[in-house]
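Q: Sequence in, structure out?
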Amino acid sequence: MAAIHKGWMLCFLGWALVSPSYGEEFFFKHGAGDKYRILSTVHEYVYVDRQLSHRSEILNRIAVTVLEEQNGNARHQGVFQTAERSEELAGSQSFQWAREYESVFNRDRQGHITIDKRYYMPVVRNVPVFPQRELKIGETWTAEGHEMHDFRDTFGIQDPYRIPFTANYAYLGPRIWRNKEYPAVSVSYRIFYEPPAVSGKLWPLRIMGASDQVLYWDFVLGQSRAYEENFRLVIELSNGMTVEYRGTAEAEILASEIMDKGQVADEIKGDLDRLGIEDTSVRIDDAGVTLSLENIQFDADSAALLPTEKAKLDKIGEILRRYPNRDILIGGHTALAGTAAGRMRLSQQRAAAVADYLIGNKVRTAERIVTRGFGAERPLAENATEAGKRINRRVEITILEN
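A: Exactly. Output:
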């Protein structure tokens, strides 16, 4: 069973302090042109018919831009990327790219989201929703919300799947998160839903679940800083099978720094010359600045790096350390040989091997690197010649803009 992707709510939080003597009025506040990133990690256990199926870690990277704002309503554009580290990738420290979603939505000052029904993200919607009044510590309120899930791979349900709930809120006052004090709000909801049948190879007959969260606000940033969650979702299916997702999630919001791609590319080109790194080129693309390590050498038909390539990666790591606040995407590519499935698997393994080497050398932590295999889908040269195959047999490292 595929994982569910919690951790998509944080980009929809904000607050403003009105009167600390009598209470605080929380409302959403963003300006046109604002950009920010959210990094969330989920530790999840999946049970099928009450038996543990698998464990996984899910890394969610979200990049958000506020397109416009008018009278307190902000229009957002988001790119939601999921990556997973599971038992199937045993031995690898890196997270393997899973899926990418785009979304456009509006949100008002209280937190209500308006979004076209075709979008899968964000998963958790209308959380939090704040009342139009000042709140004192200990005050509680309720509001309607819903989760929207992607069940295409798991159950064959092609449309975003909506699960409604009523959320219960409480203003907790100051709480500690990572050794700093923030004003905090608890969010708790329970799910018991018997939905109508939908088209798919399977469909839910009954859905039960629970979510308990603590959200932390930052007075200086004027928006949420982080959240923590415990969750459980149990789905009874039309074939009599039961699937349960259980785990924890946490996330933090990060400011997006503007990247001067031209300057970064020029700096890297100079470093490549200075360090004598051969068979490596640099280009600017939509995602950021990419280093293409052409003809990178592994043992035949394996993902074991040759010693000469490790020395090369030591030099590449020296370059990457100059940009410590940027996340990295590592893509594996093969020449056109063997089967498509074999090429894809080998490209994934080789990208993971490079990522693990950089993680082991403390160039980045595992949470700051995502790997992806492309097989032979994106050739840079003709595969008819050995020279072309050497170029296509490459690993690309992208320093991400956002």
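The longest strand covers residues 51-70.
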